[in-house]
TrEMBL record:
InterPro entries: Metallo-B-lactamas, RibonucZ/Hydroxyglut_hydro. Residues 148-212 form the Metallo-beta-lactamase domain. This is Metallo-beta-lactamase domain-containing protein.
Length: 287
């Protein structure tokens, strides 16, 4: 049942934020290392670990927010170290849904979410953008929907609604597991707005003169290391994206208003036609 925590002891431990990647751990003291940084998709900090308690992270990384589309709010930290993803809040008559987490929410940002009606449902594409989901869970106790395939990364969280491949937690908002980048990597489809929140399934380079226009698009197994996806992983991406109707594609970092299903499928088809790669492809070549 929602809000029921059969074993909540771990969730009462202090929280620490990794300065290198923004991953949260609940620990009795500063953790000895960060499992996300030690994963093959990332790199360890060159000068050693630094873990910040929540209040220190809030002071170091100011939180900002903006309504980027009617009813869609973006939260981000600037300046910030590490990965620095953004969080999104989608306001609906049936309840609000959060997707992704910024590294840390300020108290004022949490108060703003409360003023918008709080949060009924929470999810994320994959562990690189879990960010401060523990703060959201502690404040609003939403249903936390995460793929069972990534459960091993959720030690700082209490998953209340695990799913396998597809879940529609609110009308018109559906989660679809792509796998690939992580075994449980998933995208969020906002059917009414025609937006896919694609996590790290795709990466864009934006036009400096127009931050909503993507100039290039690419897909990777590991962005930092430039590792391509396999043909089977790309084929699964294609199956998921082909079933969704969308004309905008947003990552935790970029909002590409000029890239939709046509461009995404063209990229994947081009990659499947030859040896998979991790190179950015000009959007102009995909239309």
């Amino acid at each position: 049942m929602p809000g029921y925590l059969p074993f909540a002891g771990a969730l009462k431990l202090p929280s620490f934020v990794c300065d290198n990647c923004g991953f949260w751990q609940r620990h009795f003291a500063a953790p000895p290392s960060c499992p996300l940084c030690l994963d093959a998709r990332h790199v360890v900090p060159q000068d050693g670990w630094r873990f910040r308690p929540v209040a220190e992270a809030q002071a170091a990384f100011p939180c900002h927010w903006e309504e980027v589309e009617p009813g869609v709010w973006k939260f981000w930290n600037e300046p910030v170290t590490g990965i620095g993803p953004s969080a999104y809040l989608i306001v609906t008559p049936e309840g609000n849904m959060g997707f992704e987490g910024c590294p840390v929410f300020s108290d004022a940002a949490l108060d703003h979410i409360a003023a918008l009606g709080g949060m009924a449902v929470l999810s994320a594409s994959h562990p690189h953008s879990y960010g401060a989901l523990p703060q959201i869970q502690d404040r609003f106790d939403p249903e936390l929907c995460l793929p069972a395939a990534d459960f091993t990364w959720s030690a700082a969280l209490q998953v209340s609604w695990p799913y396998d491949d597809v879940l529609e937690p609110l009308p018109g908002l559906s989660l679809h597991r792509t796998a690939g980048h992580f075994d449980g990597h998933a995208v969020l489809h906002d059917a009414s707005r025609g937006i896919v929140f694609c996590g790290d399934a795709l990466k864009f380079e934006l036009n400096p003169a127009n931050p909503r226009e993507a100039l290039t698009i690419s897909a990777h197994k590991a962005f930092v290391r430039g590792v391509p996806l396999t043909r089977a992983e790309l084929a699964r991406y294609r199956e998921v994206f082909a079933a969704l109707d969308f004309h905008q594609t947003w990552t935790p970092f970029e909002q590409a208003a000029n890239v939709g299903r046509t461009e995404v499928l063209a990229l994947i088809d081009a990659m499947l036609a030859g040896r998979p790669h991790a190179y950015p492809v000009p959007v102009s070549e995909l239309t």
